[in-house]
From TrEMBL:
Protein name, UniProt field: Peptidase U32
InterPro entries found in the cross-reference section: Peptidase_U32 (IPR001539), RNA/ubiquinone_mod_enzymes (IPR051454), SCP2_sterol-bd_dom (IPR003033), SCP2_sterol-bd_dom_sf (IPR036527)
Domain of life: Bacteria
SCP2 domain sequence ranges: 54-154
Length: 580
């Protein structure tokens, strides 16, 4: 058994002159790594019980959060250890037990990754989906269990997790003593070295700033890289060479799958967030995700205290004969004082416009309105204030459309893509009986299974094999539109869409010039880490663009975005498409 790599991990904050004192999360990881590596299995179990007892004591509403996991069992395998952890759920109570690897236990799903990866996930420092796409996190079995667990954990928030995973008091005391001795040693022996390093870092920082400055000058002088571009719109041409300043700020609109994600998005610089209730009234109805009435009330207070807005998606189509859940969602959102409703169903638009005429109504992408006449109709009939554009328009088409409609335009800037048949796709319903249009979920996790077959990851949706990923190949979620199929006489290929991620960062200036008011980030189903990363990256890009700088001057930011892409690949989507 090899020692966990975590023991040799470098501290997060290298700037501190007392590295041990400033790394509580690292210290927790260190403690648990040591304990898991050195202790015999029977002694690990009491630690597990302490963690679970704390979780139950300190998390309000835990029972409700864990409800989708009732009766499920999951095996978590840190790859460096010869023990794994059986996590099971009964009546809203979790149980955690250490087991030898290979123990004959029937489980619903298995997770395997390095100990380092699991600690990063627990501390909200990495995105589970991105780790899964890159195959650093291996998943086997029932995806609904994994998704429900991810969402429940993600909703806890970083402070709480640090609290729950802090070492038990006697060990904590011991660690504090060790830390204090270590700090004294560091001060005497290492401090002079750290000071020298700090000076060098400062010199390197100045050099980097000069290099960035030179890059900016070079970029502004250089021809724009049109050679890479198959189709370049007139809007794009007009805006690539002359970045503008002093323009109206564009709204950065972030996904909030959980209350913790809402707070993270706002702290990272989002102007507004969008979210849904915990039911089929919104198009991301996944287990463990979304907001209760109380969650929304608290989220609104957090956002409004900071001058940010909250939009509520009630964007599925109401069930015939059972409109009540949708009406109730509208009433609750209005009563709590949300800033806008996002809707597609004309019955719901009519209800909201008559009952709450002063509450902003945004037409969801799910409505699939794709012509000025269609949008004008919604404006005249239901007084919509904003249109969320389907992801099918070029930059020029957006500019033309904006000239013809008297309302705000919101476009997607980053996130997962589908073949642009918003609100009309029945593929998921065909395979599973549930679709995003009526039930709020495409390819529901309870119909998804992953199996590792000798290094090949096979993904299934219901009875259909959707994809096979060779070892090392980036993986994706099995939606039917992103499956690989074998056409007659051909080889397996993506017939509709590849699993890839829209990244329209390079069109920020062009979209602004086309009259776009709001940039929407897709991904309420993704982790809190994803939300924080994408929001802070786009905050940096928007600020740079507003200051007249080209986004190419922020290569680190573009690289961070790339790491979060579904399937590990990015696309510019329809913004510069040459087909219709
Ligand atoms: S199958 Fe694809 S196109 Fe259809 S709803 Fe799901 S993601 Fe969208």
């Amino acid at each position: 058994m090899s020692a966990p790599s975590l023991l040799f991990r470098s501290p997060v904050s290298s700037a501190s002159s007392s590295p041990f004192g400033a790394m509580s999360a690292e210290r927790q990881d260190l403690f648990f790594s040591l304990a898991l590596t050195a202790l015999p299995r029977p002694m690990i179990n009491p630690l597990c019980q302490i963690v679970i007892a704390r979780l139950e004591r300190r998390v309000p509403g835990l029972k409700q959060r864990l409800q989708p996991l009732d009766g499920k069992k999951l095996f978590v395998q840190p790859e460096e250890l010869d023990v794994g952890f059986l996590l099971s759920f009964r009546n809203g109570h979790p149980e955690l037990n250490a087991l030898a690897v290979g123990s004959p236990v029937k489980v619903d799903a298995k997770l395997a990754a390095s100990l380092d990866t699991f600690f990063d996930l627990l501390h909200g420092k990495s995105d589970g989906d991105a780790l899964f796409f890159s195959r650093d996190l291996k998943v086997d079995g029932d995806m609904a269990v994994v998704v429900a667990l991810r969402n429940a954990m993600d909703g806890l928030g970083e402070d709480l997790l640090s609290d729950i995973f802090s070492p038990p008091a006697p060990f904590n005391h011991l660690l504090n003593r060790v830390s204090s001795v270590a700090n004294r040693c560091v001060d005497r022996v290492v401090a002079p070295f750290l000071q020298k390093t700090a000076r060098l870092e400062s010199d390197i920082g100045s050099m980097r700033a000069e290099i960035d400055q030179l890059r900016r000058h070079q970029y502004q002088k250089a021809q724009p890289p049109f050679s890479k571009v198959e189709v370049v719109s007139s809007v794009e041409k007009n805006n690539r060479t002359s970045p503008k300043v002093d323009q109206k700020p564009i709204e950065l609109l972030a996904p909030a799958g959980t209350p913790a994600a809402l707070r993270s998005a706002i702290d990272a610089g989002a102007n507004a967030v969008y979210l849904g209730f915990r039911d089929e009234t919104n198009a991301r109805n996944y287990p463990g995700l979304n907001f209760s009435r109380d969650d929304l009330k608290e989220g609104l207070a957090y956002a409004h205290e900071r001058g940010r807005r909250v939009h509520v998606a009630i964007n599925t189509y109401a069930a015939a004969g059972n409109m009540q859940p949708w009406y109730k969602a509208i009433d609750t959102a209005a009563e709590l004082g949300v800033d806008a409703l996002i809707m597609a169903d004309i019955g719901l638009l009519s209800y909201a416009s008559k009952r709450y005429p002063d509450l902003s109504r945004h037409l969801s992408v799910q409505a699939g309105a794709s012509t000025p006449a269609a949008i004008q109709f919604y404006y005249e009939m239901f007084g919509i204030n904003r249109m969320v554009l389907p992801r099918m328009f070029t930059l020029d088409e957006i500019a033309i459309l904006k000239e013809k409609v008297p309302i705000e335009i919101e476009t997607f800037i980053f996130g997962s893509l589908s073949p642009m048949s918003e609100g009309r796709c029945a593929l998921s319903a065909y395979a599973t009986g549930r679709s995003p249009n009526l039930c709020g979920v495409c390819s529901p996790a309870e119909h998804v299974r992953y199996e590792n077959r000798e290094g090949v990851l096979v993904s299934q949706l219901g009875d259909f094999v959707i994809n096979r990923f060779e070892e090392g190949e980036a993986a994706g979620y099995p939606t039917l539109c992103k499956g690989r199929y074998i056409p007659e006489g051909g080889d397996a290929c993506y017939l509709f869409e590849k699993p890839e991620c829209l990244n329209a960062a390079e069109y920020i200036a062009s979209l602004r010039a086309a009259g776009v008011t709001s940039f929407k980030i897709e991904g309420r189903q993704r982790s809190r880490f994803y939300t924080t990363e994408v929001v802070s990256c786009f905050r940096a890009l928007l600020d740079a663009e507003a200051a007249g700088e080209a986004i190419e001057t922020l290569p680190d930011v573009l690289e961070r975005l790339h790491k979060l892409a579904e399937g590990g690949e990015e696309t510019r989507g329809a913004y510069r498409k040459g087909w219709r």
